[in-house]
Amino acid sequence: MPIREEFRHLEPYGAPQLDVPVALNVNENPYPPSERVVADIAHAVAQAAAGLNRYPDREFLDLRADLAAYLYRESGAILRPEQLWAANGSNEVMLHILQAFGGPGRRALSFAPTYSMYPEYARDTHTEWIVGRREGDFTLDRSKALAAISRHRPSVVLLASPNNPTGTALPIDLIEAIAARTAELGSVLVVDEAYGEFRREGTPSATTLLPSYPNLAVARTMSKAFALAGARLGYLAASNDLINALRVVRLPYHLSAVTQAVARAALRHSEELLSRVGQLRQERDETVHWLHSQGLQAVDSDANFVLFGTFRQRHAVWQSLLDDGVLIRETGPDGWLRVSIGTAAEMAAFKAALEKVLKASE
Ligand code: PMP
């Protein structure tokens, strides 16, 4: 096939989708929607189905208004519907950013270890990918980060906070300093808050910086805390001008009438869908504590997963857990593994399987 030269021999990105009793590998919310929410979503889909001969609302302003109202409730950000954008997962909204602001002769920059799709957005849009480093404890050094941005003058800077796979959040004053520097340079700053709802109480969301920084975009998703990964709805908040640039590159009618209906119905039940966040946070902190008690390193997390290690042969540990029906993720720096936070029963299965490995290696 006449595939682009740099794509030859590349495997498509994605974690293994295996049928296992305990799936703790892709940071989903383990709690399915209640019967009441399922019924309401089904009703909304039935209504949308009656009009499926027509293309969907291309500007989806009703959904954008609902998302703005949700962000106000969640983080106090005051946004107009025109300041919201959505697509099929936050991966797609961030690809729109690279399509609009990246491209040949331009650069995108982030700091590793971070979300492994970022270099793929860059690759797919012919944007040069520049990767800086986080510190040994996965924090970001302010002066080094600002210096890297000034030196490389990227068109787009991507910062995940809380970060995947480390779980670490960035202090808001550091995000603001980077927003200011990127504004001076005429660059776009994307703060990826896919795991934003799991952040520790009292930590402000980067959405609160939006009024001061028209070059800032804050990406969110309904896939994680919102327990709606299967619906594929990601969104971002930004200035009107930034959103208008994304409207140029989106495909016509990219968000189906069914997706819009499902997302709006789910947003009507946001309180219920998010009701397990507190429990998951607690389970996360307990998991970190338990891993420490086993003599392991575990990174304090603001997300719904924990990076832990280190193992001389992490693949063997991952495989042993899988043999016991527990699927986690082999990702992050050498020697580390990542576990998503599941139900109490799933975490008990994870701990039992890992204890077995640790005993066997004594
Ligand atoms: N950003 C981060 C940091 C993620 O970890 C993920 C999912 N793993 C995404 C974005 C994309 O999620 P989605 O496309 O489901 O919104």
UniProtKB/TrEMBL annotation:
MF GO annotations: histidinol-phosphate transaminase activity
Aminotransferase class I/classII large domain sequence ranges: 22-349
Keywords linked to the UniProt accession: Amino-acid biosynthesis, Aminotransferase, Histidine biosynthesis, Pyridoxal phosphate, Transferase
Pathway: Amino-acid biosynthesis; L-histidine biosynthesis; L-histidine from 5-phospho-alpha-D-ribose 1-diphosphate: step 7/9
InterPro entries: Aminotrans_II_pyridoxalP_BS (IPR001917), Aminotransferase_I/II_large (IPR004839), HisP_aminotrans (IPR005861), PyrdxlP-dep_Trfase (IPR015424), PyrdxlP-dep_Trfase_major (IPR015421), PyrdxlP-dep_Trfase_small (IPR015422)
Catalyzed reactions: L-histidinol phosphate + 2-oxoglutarate = 3-(imidazol-4-yl)-2-oxopropyl phosphate + L-glutamate
Amino-acid biosynthesis as UniProt keyword: yes
EC number: 2.6.1.9
EC top class named in words: transferase
Cofactor(s), by name: pyridoxal 5'-phosphate
CDD domains (UniProt xref): AAT_like
Keyword Amino-acid biosynthesis (UniProt): yes
Superkingdom, taxonomy of origin: Bacteria
Residues that bear N6-(pyridoxal phosphate)lysine: 224
PANTHER family: HISTIDINOL-PHOSPHATE AMINOTRANSFERASE, HISTIDINOL-PHOSPHATE AMINOTRANSFERASE-RELATED
Known partners and oligomeric status: Homodimer.
Family indicated by similarity: Belongs to the class-II pyridoxal-phosphate-dependent aminotransferase family. Histidinol-phosphate aminotransferase subfamily.
HAMAP family: HisC_aminotrans_2
Name of the protein in its database record: Histidinol-phosphate aminotransferase
Gene name, Swiss-Prot/TrEMBL: hisC
